[in-house]
UniProtKB/TrEMBL annotation:
Pfam families, per the entry: FCD, GntR
One Gene Ontology term of the molecular function aspect: DNA binding
The UniProt record lists the keyword Transcription regulation: yes
Alphabetical list of SUPFAM superfamilies matching this protein: GntR ligand-binding domain-like (SSF48008), Winged helix' DNA-binding domain (SSF46785)
Top-level division of the source organism's lineage: Bacteria
Annotated InterPro entries: GntR_C (IPR011711), TF_FadR/GntR_C (IPR008920), Tscrpt_reg_HTH_GntR (IPR000524), WH-like_DNA-bd_sf (IPR036388), WH_DNA-bd_sf (IPR036390)
Protein name, UniProt field: GntR family transcriptional regulator
Length: 240
């Protein structure tokens, strides 16, 4: 197995164990343990630990080694952390939190895009929405996901706000993780498909209020569907 693939695989295994609480806050991990468990060199083990330090899931402590940090310390907006958490047992609660974040950002991004987007971006957004509709009707799940990521990424860029644009990878990880984690219906609802079209057409027409309202309704519908289908009243919202 190539070194990069091996490194990524080990990082994912350890990250998911931390997410699931198999490795708990305060637990220590030493390089020697990683070397022995995965039969890798010290160099590979060190790079694995550095990757988890980089997203603040681990921290170095003298005479102890690397220690698992509290959830609140993690880089929760890093796309890798989002992906790992969406692959865990509390993925529905994680998706609910991410949906609330999207609700705080994407309606405003849609409003800004209606004001600031270049003409080509306005047309492209409508094209992507139409492609989404065709993919949904055909039951082409992978094509739908690809178009959905492209659609929301373009909307964030077209807003003209560099901080909104910086959310592209995070939201792409959210959309991918939602699908791979089994939190996406096999056939997107007609309401969701129509919502994408309405947002795109409002942006193309330069109607900022309608673009904002349509995106707010689209994501609000997603939140309601998530609550109805996946979140039980007793589920921990702040799970790992």
């Amino acid at each position: 197995m190539p070194a990069e693939v091996l490194h990524s695989a080990i990082v994912s295994v350890l990250a998911r164990e931390i997410v699931e609480g198999e490795l708990r806050e305060g637990d220590a991990i030493r390089l020697e343990q990683i070397q022995a468990r995965f039969e890798v060199s010290r160099t590979v083990a060190r790079e694995v630990m550095r990757s988890l330090e980089a997203v603040r899931m681990l921290e170095a402590r003298r005479s102890v080694g690397l220690v698992v940090r509290a959830l609140a310390d993690w880089d929760l907006l890093d796309p890798r952390v989002v992906t790992w958490r969406l692959g865990g047992s509390t993925r529905a609660a994680q998706l609910a939190s991410l949906t609330e974040l999207r609700l705080a950002i994407e309606p405003a991004a849609a409003r800004s895009a209606a004001i600031h987007a270049a003409g080509a971006d306005r047309d492209r957004l409508v094209e992507l929405a139409e492609h989404l509709a065709r993919s949904a009707n055909a039951g082409a799940r992978d094509a739908f996901l690809t178009a959905d990521i492209a659609y929301h990424s373009l909307l964030l860029r077209a807003s003209g706000n560099e901080l909104f644009a910086a959310m592209q990878e995070l939201f792409a990880a959210t959309l991918s993780g939602r699908t791979r984690g089994g939190l996406m219906p096999h056939h997107p609802s007609s309401t969701a498909v129509d919502g994408h079209l309405l947002v795109a057409r409002s942006v193309r027409q330069g109607d900022a209020d309608d673009a904002h309202g349509a995106m707010d309704e689209l994501l609000g519908g997603l939140r309601r569907e998530l609550a109805a289908r996946w979140i039980s009243p007793t589920e921990e919202r702040m799970g790992r």
